[in-house]
Design a protein that fits this description.
It contains three helices and nine strands; from the N terminus they run βββαβαβββαββ. A six-stranded mixed β-barrel has the order 1-3-2-9-8-7. Strand 5 and strand 6 form a beta hairpin. Helix 1 runs parallel beside helix 2.
């Protein structure tokens, strides 16, 4: 079983604002991606440090344990010996996201849609959830199942709606978010394009598909991303440093 990763950064807390144009907190979006791990196994190249093109594997295609399995240690592990997930050092990285079908497993450049706010009510509701904020709690340790259905179009549309809330905002590699409408009464205290996304345990995902053929997404932390645009149906963004971020190195 393989799991690709491609988004990064840690948040300790993610607070939602009210469902309004003005945004006074970083809003959690209806997406989740795998957390970072220690890369020890690679089918296509010699062993190397973890990169955003690697896959997570502890077993082969027949379910047999690998002699050099990848290692994931979550933030709240009982046998904590060093969290392997995303940290402040990933800030500023360009990321690319594409909606994935849960029935096809986790493929390169894919993420799962999850039920936050109105997201579970169909394509239009999912689109709305991307561009708005909702008081839907998602706690570390929660186990979720991905939404199903044709969500590629609503993803692109929802991101376009989100960008239109702060159309002139841009990412500067030295200054971060610039030219934003925030802070202002109409835009709020923070750009709507600065969002939070949940990350899940890749090892738990792999084992759930092997044992039950149902992908379970156990939330281990959250990431912060400035949504930059949509290219070829894929969402692009930059990892951001947020004041609410976990104090990891």
């Amino acid at each position: 079983m393989r799991v690709r990763i491609f988004v990064f950064l840690v948040l300790a807390v993610c607070s939602a604002a009210t469902n309004a144009t003005a945004q006074n907190a970083i809003c959690l979006k209806p997406w989740t991606i795998p957390d970072k791990w220690i890369e020890r196994h690679d089918d296509d190249s010699p062993a190397h440090d973890w990169t955003d093109g690697d896959t997570f594997q502890t077993v082969d295609s027949h379910g047999n344990a690998l002699s050099d399995p990848d290692v994931y240690i979550p933030l709240n592990s009982r046998d904590y010996t060093g969290y392997t997930g995303f940290t402040r050092s990933d800030s500023g990285r360009l990321i690319t996201l594409k909606i994935g079908d849960p029935h096809d497993g986790m493929k390169a450049g894919w993420f799962y849609a999850i039920d936050i706010g109105t997201a579970g009510g169909g394509g239009n509701a999912y689109r709305t959830a991307i561009a708005t904020c909702h008081e839907t709690p998602v706690l570390m340790g929660s186990s979720l199942q991905p939404l199903s259905g044709m969500l590629s179009g609503p993803t692109v549309q929802g991101v376009a709606d989100l960008i239109n809330l702060d159309p002139d905002a841009k990412w500067d590699p030295l200054k971060g978010v610039i030219n934003s409408c925030a802070p202002s009464p109409s835009c709020g205290s923070v750009s709507p394009r600065l969002v939070a996304i949940a990350v899940f345990d890749p090892e738990r995902f792999e084992s759930s598909l092997i044992n039950s053929d149902q992908p379970w997404l156990r939330i281990t932390n959250f990431i912060g991303v400035f949504i930059d645009g949509v290219v070829g149906g894929k969402v692009t963004g930059y990892i951001t440093t947020l004041s609410s971020m976990n104090n990891q190195p």
